[in-house]
Every structure is written in C-alpha cells, then in structure tokens.
Amino acid sequence: MTQFDLNCPLPLDQNNHITMAHGGGGKIMNQLIQNLFQSQLSNPHLDTLHDGAVFEIGSVKMAFSTDSFVINPIFFPGGDIGSLAVHGTVNDVAMCGAMPKYLSLAIILEEGFPVSDLEKIVHSIKSASEKAGVEVVTGDTKVVDKGKGDGIYINTAGIGEVMSGVNIRPKNVKPGDAVVVSGDIGRHAIAIMAVREGLEFSTTIKSDSMAVNHQVNSIINNGVSPHCFRDCTRGGLASALVEISQSAQIHIEIEEEKIPVLKEVNGACEILGFDPIYLANEGRFISFVKEEDAKKVLEIIPDSVLIGKVISDMQAKVTMIQPYGPAKIVDMLSGEQLPRIC
Amino acid sequence: MKYLEQYRDKNLVLKLVDEIHKTTTQPWTIMEMCGGQTHSIIRYGIDKLIPNKIRLVHGPGCPVCVTPKEMIDKALDIAAQEDVIFTSFGDMLRVPGTHEDLFSIKAQGGDVRIVYSPMDAVALAEKHPDREVVFFGVGFETTAPANAMAVVAAKEKGLTNFSVLISHVLVPPAIEAILKSDRNEVQGFLAAGHVCTIMGYEEYEPLSKKYKVPIVVTGFEPVDLLQGILMTVKQLEEGRFDVENQYARSVSRQGNDPAQHVLKDVFRVIPRKWRGIGEIPMSGWGLTEKYSKYDAELKFGVIDTTAEEPADCISGEILMGHKRPNECPAFGTSCTPESPFGATMVSAEGACAAYYKYHRLT
After folding, report:
1. pLDDT reading at A1 higher than 60
2. Per the CB 3.0–4.6 Å rule, which of A8, A272, B205, B213 could disulfide with B310?
3. Which CATH number does the domain housing residue A203 bear?
4. Is residue A340, in this structure, part of any structural domain at all?
C-alpha cells in the first residue's frame, strides 16, 4: 500500500464512547460484535452469527434468541413496543427454522410512567402472543429513577423446537439458490420516523411489524427445504443480504426493479435522502431456497417476491442489477442513514 | 412516482445515451457542481453509460464537504455547553472537527438534536425559554432561504434564546475559483438545479462569457443529467459557450424573488473558507448587522476559533476537479467512511463516499 503521510488528526477513535452507530445495524455495530462480544465469548453457537442459537438438549433440537426493545415512540401506526417485543423475538426464533413456543418478558420502567400505557402495552403483548402461538412463561419487572430511562424498555427471549428435518444456517446457501423477500420493505422505519420526527405525509404509513413464524411454518410444511432465512430488521434488506453473503462466502445478485417498496415509502425516502434497502423492517424476511422451490414460496406467501439469486461461491459480495447502467455493489452502511441537508 | 419515474425512464435514458455517443467526437471534461448530482451519477452509473471521451469530475457542491473544520470546531464548542440545545441536519453530525464530531459530543452528554427544518429549531427555542437553542445553518443558496426565514421568525417572535451558526457558501465564486486555477481542465459545467431554483441563472452569464465555458443548469435524475450532459457536449462540439437551462420545470432566469428578498435582508456577502480549498473571496454569506444578535459565533464568543486543515487529504483536489476519489492513494484503504480523512468521505453526497459506497475502486 502506498504510504499516506497524515497531518490530519483523523481517523477519530470510535472506541472512546459508544455512539448511536454502535447500535445502527451497520459496519460499526458489526465491528463491536466481532471485536468485543464474539472475541470474548466465542463458542460454536455464538460464532454461527445467526438470528438465534440452535443446540440440542437431550434429543431435542432447540432454537433460542433474545432481543431488546427501546423504541421511541412506544405507540406507532401498526403496533407498539409490546407487539414489537413479541414479534422481534418470535421472528428471530423462526429464522432458525423453529416454531417459537415460550417467551420471557423483562420490563424496565421509568418512574412516572403511566399505568394506563403499561396496561395497553401488556394487552398488546397478550394479543400478539396469541396470534403468534407463543406463551409468556417467565418475566421480570424493574423500575428506574425518573430521568434514568425512556419510559419503558422491554427485553424478550424466546425458545422453540426446530422443525424436524430442517437445517438452516447461512453456510447452507448455495449458488443457484433463489432469493425471496416476504413482502414490501421499509415501512417500519418510515412509520416510526414519521411519528418521532413529526413528519407529515398525505397517507399514514403503517409499520410492517408482524410475527412471521406461521409463514415460515407453512414454507417448511409444504415440502420446501429452505437453506436459510434471515429477517430484515436493523440495516434492512441490504445488510441482511451482505451478512449472508459474508457468512456463506457467496455472490448474491438482486434486481432493483423487483424489490417491492410502497410508493409512499419511496416518496419519503426521496425526501429524506434514504435508500429503502437499508430501512428497518419488523415483519419481513428473506428465504434462500432451491430454484425449483421458489415458486412454492411465492404461492405460500402471496406478497412475497423473487428478487434475485445466488450466482457463485467465488466471492462474498452482493450486487444489484439496475434498470440501466452497470450492476452496482450493495454494501453495509457504517451506521444509520442520516437525513441529508438538501 | 409522479415527476420522478418519468425522469428515470429506461427508454428515454438509452435514447439520450445514444445521442450523446453520436454527438461526441473529441475528449471533454465536464464538472457537475452539486453533490446530489454526483451521487445520482454514481448511483445510476451514468458515467459508465456515456462515451469514455467524456470525463466527469465532481465539483465542490456538497455542503457537508466544504464546511471548514474550524466551523465544525465552533459547533462542537457550542454544543458541549450545558445550557445549549444544538440542532442540525443529520448529515453534519458525523463530520469530524479537529478532535471529534457532534455524535461524540452527544455521546458525552451534549444535547445535540437532528431537525428536519430550521423552523423546528425555532419551535424548540419557544418551548425551552431557559435554554439556548442553536441551529447549524450550512449549505449553498438552496438551504439559505429557510435558514433566513428561521432568523426572521425568531425576531418576529421576540426570541432571545435562538441563534444560528452560519456557514453558507455560494456557487458562482466557486466556479470562478475553479476556472482561475492554473491546473483547471474543466471545459463545461452542469450547474446545480436547486441552487438555481432560488437564484436563477442570470448570475452565471458573465462567468460563461468571461471564461468561454458552457454552463447548463441541470436537475438530479438520470434523464436530467444525461440531457444536461448532451446540452453541454453539443455546445462544446459547436464551440459555443452559453448558459442553458435543462431544469426548466423548476428554474427560471430570475429565480425565486421572494426568497432572494429574504436572503438580501438577512445575509451579506463575505469571504468564506472552503474545506480543502481555502478562502475564496466573497464566496459566502454571513448575517447582516440587523440580525447580528442571532449570530451564534458572536453570542458564544467562538468567532476566533481556527483549525489547521489537513495538508495531505486530497479532498481539495477532488473538489476542484483536479482528481477523482479513486486517484487518491488512501481511498478505500486507510480512508473509509468508518475512519474518514476528510469530509468528502463522510457525507452521503461527498464524492469519495459515493465512490466508496458503489465500489468504484478503479
């Protein structure tokens, strides 16, 4: 490498303080996970770097995952922190090819939080759990001083039994596999941002927050043998694809024109300078299946779309075919997308 | 999407590409002025669609990139103060000053907030009369009217706890600085559509005449950009040097009169430092005497803050059109968005960040 003599005091030391980018779902968060958590706590289950861990207890293959919810606003179009706390963990367990069965629920409340809001949230947890077919079987409640929390934080963990004959892991994804996304992307992020920042659009964009375990179940029960699932949460569709391409050392190619995005979401992205492929979703996942199975997945999930395929195992990368011009590389962002000046 | 999809239409794009190929007979160097245009060019691969003979270089029109480091340092000094709510558009938060960025100040307890309009900052000042609310007003002529309006609104509301840290810069003096440079290779310009929406394009006519360069006011979508390039190439091939308007759906020769009226009331033309380039005479705006009590530099006593610009980051060369990002030895190796040497790698609209994001390594 050519030497570049720097007078510039940069780069900034990212490690002095935690910044929001450390939780943004991009490269900086991945560096934190790899350099600190994974390096200190390494074991074969953790090192898989999937949405949950899969292990055997006795003769039963289980999937186990956890997620924390610090969302602001706590109520938003299409859901609230309660339903989200159920969906997030249920989906992580489902991404392991398991039927989620039991959840733990830990709530941290800030002094002064309205009980009526808490009642609404618990009701929402009940309703989301029933729909997903899971039960909250253990829990914990803590209260912190006024000013030491943001109203309410929730952590859930979930456990489920891996469905028989299913073996899901990023490394199983192979050249020729079809890439199917389960529905339109970007709605959750825009719905949250619209409420949080008081952005007014002509129509209310609702979050896509939902439990996807029944969809996963249907795929598996209809004779499809999925190679991998990945939910498109923080960092969006793009980060999920890049993570899989790196874990499996494969080249994924998607077609920009096929990616389903609501026109309202696209409009909001144009205004804010965002790219929808990096926006967070809470009820969307990607299936990697054999080419001949793709049709079945598309039938089982009516809103799903075939967006691309795995084209080789020569190089770990994601490319996107554009309507014209060369295919472009899709990379992870450093941190969160920031609204631009003009 | 109305008024967008039409300007990304594949058939129109390919037709324009074909016409550019037919029109071009010799090598030309064209600069697009605006960071938004740079980003679109790289995102849609426009530079790969046009003939190799046309070299596109990327101009200084990224507001985040050209805001001088000392201005970031001033922002950091103010934002770190206890009674201050410091407000900014999102993409300024990651731009490094001498030691840190606004995100670090936030992480250390500073009240730094992203807003979507300077009027949001005025509303915050009304809501928190016991706190000082400061808005970081950066950008070109495009963002200036809204910032000016915020100052006017604060005055009308009698707010004493609102001020703006202004770092506005102007396009025509930058074009002139580029054309005056001994090393200039730029033969035609795509002027920034949104800047001209406010200012019109009359002020570009003397420049075009004096330096014998075609200047085409151009929009931001693929069809706009290709049409702008075609209009510029046609002029170059025919030996003309006029100011033409591709972005007529938004731009008139005179521009937006009411906006210009507010700008004249609130701002006066002053010399400004451009990050990576240095001082350009009469190239920016500062507040007029009438509004000086809304000047955060005066209010917080940071007017004399200075900072050394990095000598070896080549962002100045890139912003002047002398080099392209992938011609920098540090590009993509020691300089990345996670550890940027200069602001062109930080901002989403910076040329280095656009090249990096779309892996234009060679």
Report:
1. no
2. A8
3. 3.90.650.10
4. no
